[in-house]
Amino acid sequence: MSTRPPVLSAEELRVVFPGRRGAPSARAVDGVDLAIGAGEIVALVGESGCGKSTLARALLGLVEPTSGVVSFGGRPLSYGTRALKEYRRRVQLVLQDPSGSLNPRHTVYEAVAEGLRIHGRGGDERAAVADALAQAGLRPPERFFLRYPHELSGGQRQRVVIAGALVLRPEVIIADEPVASLDASVRGEILALLLRLREELGVAALVVTHDLGLAWNIADRVAVMYLGRIVESGPVEDVLTDARHPYTRALLSVLPESAEPPAILTGEPPDPSRIPQGCRFHIRCPSLTSGEAAGAGVAERCRTEEPELLGGVACHLR
């Protein structure tokens, strides 16, 4: 957990989607505890389909949890229309694909001003839009007012999306794969922008990603998610230099700078409607197939008992 006072947190959060035509329900988020401290950047890491985006949507109030509590500033989130509107002003979303986030018929000015108009913010709209664009690195901002998305580069479009979030002066940004669709040359610029926003404005961020290398470059803490649960979490330096969960070690082993041989995980993550008994990772776990778990006397527990998240790791071996 964060050592800073949490601005946004989840406690025992569960999101279950009912199955169709009698099929089993899918446990997309299955008992997650997560806290984001004021001015802190947390990376939420895992493979596609592990529940990261569903957790992000629940934290935004876009999905009401089946059970558990989302709290903002220490107060449980209310799901009334007026309360959610105020909440979403203070907690903003930045999506992966800037082209899909921007209306091609709207100018940059209209795209950034839209949030101000929805939330009925008073004051000088033109000045607020210019300030947000400048903070997002589009200078001079007036030069971009009348441009359309197709006239911008991918990096510039992502900066417009970020400006649209910043114009409401949020306390938290939830960024879902914010650089996945960008060229490598632009990725570093957007990551540096997020770090600068934290330093200059005190904005906290949850960065949802499948890329542990990105987490290393931007995050204070990292939470690794697998099949709906957090399996390892802690300060980014601790987790990424001394990973204790076999899943985290496997993710790290495929990074280009890794000194370890790539760990090949067999098969795909199980269907969240058919989560296996015991440790939900055990059917793909290299420590179980190699005999390490048997040597430690925990192989049977791996197959039959769900490990708790203790000391930042959910693994019978640790």
UniProtKB/TrEMBL annotation:
One of its GO terms (molecular function) is ATP binding. Gene3D superfamilies: P-loop containing nucleotide triphosphate hydrolases (3.40.50.300). This is ABC transporter ATP-binding protein. Keywords: ATP-binding, Nucleotide-binding, Transport. SUPFAM superfamilies: P-loop containing nucleoside triphosphate hydrolases (SSF52540). InterPro entries: AAA+_ATPase, ABC_transp_ATP-bind, ABC_transporter-like_ATP-bd, ABC_transporter-like_CS, Oligopep_ABC_C, P-loop_NTPase. Residues 8-252 form the ABC transporter domain. It comes from the Bacteria. Belongs to the ABC transporter superfamily. PANTHER family: D,D-DIPEPTIDE TRANSPORT ATP-BINDING PROTEIN DDPF-RELATED, TRANSPORT ATP-BINDING PROTEIN. It comes from Streptomyces chengmaiensis. Signal peptide: none annotated.
